[in-house]
Amino acid sequence: MSDQPAKGTQGYSVVRLGLQRELGHAMAATEVLPFLDEVESSAITAPHRIDAPEIDEVDELQRPWQVVVWNDPVNLMSYVVFVLRKLFGFPEEEATRLMLAVHHEGRAVVASGPREKSELDCYRLHHHGLWATLEKA
Questions:
Q1: Contact (Cβ atoms closer than 8 angstroms) between residue 102 and residue 96
Q2: Is residue 106 one of the residues assigned to a domain?
Q3: What pLDDT does 15 receive?
Q4: Number of folded domains that form the chain
Q5: How far apart are CA 120 and CA 90, in angstroms?
C-alpha cells in the first residue's frame, strides 16, 4: 500500500503519539490529520501588530547578586585565605583583608555578578566547607 492517497480521495496522514497510562507504561495511539496543505488553508492568521508590554522589568537572572562569606567557629583563618585565593584568584593581601573582615565583622562580600554565577561561587564555597549565602546587590 502506498502513502499517497488514491485519485479522487481526500488525503490523510497518520501520526503516532506516545501516551502514558496511569502506571507509567507507554502505549501507542493514532490520530488522523489532513495533509499539510489542507491544514495551512484553514489555519487562523495571527495579528499583524503585536504591542510589547510597557513594563520596564530587569530579568531576575540579570540583576547583580553578592556572595557573602560568614564567620564560623570551625575553619582556620589560614584556610579561609587559601580558599579565597584558590577559588577567586585573589592576591594574598586581598584574601587576608576579606578573611579579617569575616573574622571581625562576621561577614564579607567576596564576589558579585549575575545570579547563576553567584550561585556557582556559593556552591564552590560550600564544597570547601565555608558558610556562604547570596543576597541581592
A1: no
A2: yes
A3: 47
A4: 2
A5: 17
Q: Is the pTM for the entire model greater than 0.90?
A: no
Sequential DSSP letters for 62-118: TS-EEEEEE--SSS-HHHHHHHHHHHH---HHHHHHHHHHHHHHSEEEEEEE-HHHH
Domain of residue 20: give its range: 12-42
pLDDT score at 63 = 76
Cell numbers found for residue 101: 573582615
The CA angle 70-85-82, to the nearest 5 degrees, is 70
User: Does 119 fall in a domain?
Assistant: yes
Q: Which amino acid is at 21?
A: R
Q: Does residue 30 lie in a domain region? A: yes
Rounded to whole angstroms, how far apart are CA atoms 96 and 83? Answer: 11
Under-70 pLDDT residues of the chain: 1-44, 46-47, 50, 53, 55-62
Phi, psi of 132 (to 5 degrees): -145, 150
**Contact status, residue 131 vs residue 121, Cβ threshold 8 Å:** no
Q: Is 37 helix (H, G, I), strand (E, B) or coil?
A: helix
Q: What is the CATH number of the domain that holds 115?
A: 3.30.1390.10
